[in-house]
């Protein structure tokens, strides 16, 4: 055996050993009822074979589809995965939302055999926006969906401009055949797409009737990414996403690939129209039949915690993940547009949430308080959220019934008790709180 073949054999043996050990860990974790084993197997396999992410992803037959952004990754990935599966493709997907490096590896390991052979047509991987620059080269994605960039966990990530700059630098080094699909309505991403040498397809809204009455407090990119001058907005759909142009240098919104009115949206909330358009643009690029796409949209079921509807003791419950200013403003919009009178807000400050909860002061909680009804507050930072809601009251004769309960299980029981039988209880939790809420409601852990 020559030296080259011997090295390849050693590599294959190491990869197979890493995958086998990871699969053993998965079985053990699930057998002991410790969770879904969506991170630990990848962490252990990575120690055995540091190149595991690249070695597995290069085996994907038709390529990797990477989905990045602050909000909407899990929902968009699940929609695109469902579309491709209905077309008959076999998909590897990090469906639990574990979107750091170990989670990506675990998702690929899940679909590999005991010797590390991967037999899938596509890998759809949602990726945390802060690690995109780390994983692009080993993954070598065929398509990159760039959903949006908002402030999120400032204690970890910093401002959106720094993230965008890193994305542009690393994406521009990828092969020219890579297809990049950015959000045209996000000035930062629209500009990013205009600078890339690769093939770029934009998605976005062209429905002025959906404009907000005013630009909300939680905006991040209202200045021109090219020259720094204040952008002129014809209107905004949510946060800083809208129809814009720069009066100073001429930079303007890129033209979306699709007419947004032609496509219905999945789930509730305008933010899910963006998720729909992103997934549809990707699916059409891959040649999926339009009828299959439309049928999937009409029958789509939410990912856990993302506009997920449950029935608990004959009581309807809707979980709306609310982890940053923009996302929470949009979930509040969903609540205030309903006729339901009871809302549970759960604020945690654990590592998955970000330890800095000052973002709640950028949320338009005034709209939630103005409509009245019952607001139940819980979580690790229950008093921070309660204070924010109190400051949202414009007068001492507020119609809101604010209930503070530190214990989440009791808070949920109180909220359900205050929800009329013909209404839905809306729960707005941060990420770790959402996992707790679902475990209490369903009796099952997710991670």
Description:
It is globular, with a radius of gyration of 22 Å. Mean pLDDT is 91; it is low at 153-158. The protein is of the alpha/beta class and 447 residues long. It has a 6-stranded parallel beta sheet with strand order 2-3-1-4-5-6, sandwiched between helices. A 6-stranded mixed beta sheet has the order 9-10-14-11-12-13, with helices on both faces. Strands 7-8 form a two-stranded antiparallel sheet. The longest helix has 29 residues, at 3-31. The chain has helices spanning 3-31, 40-48, 52-57, 73-86, 101-110, 132-139, 160-171, 187-195, 271-285, 290-298, 325-336, 365-370, 382-391, 408-417, 431-442; strands spanning 64-68, 91-93, 122-127, 143-146, 179-182, 199-200, 232-238, 241-245, 306-312, 315-320, 342-346, 373-378, 400-404, 424-429. Helices cover 38% and strands 16% of the residues.
Q: How would the global form be characterised?
A: globular
Low-confidence stretches: 153-158
* Cα gyration radius (Å): 22 Å
Helical content stands at: 25-40%
Count the E strands. 14
Strand content: 15-25%
Strand numbers in spatial order across the main sheet: 2-3-1-4-5-6
* Largest sheet entry: 6 strands, parallel
Order of helices and strands: HHHEHEHEHEHEHEEEHHEEHEHEHEHEH
Distance between the termini: 45 Å
Give the assembly state of these chains.
single chain
Helical segment count: 15
Structural class: alpha/beta
Averaged pLDDT, please?
91
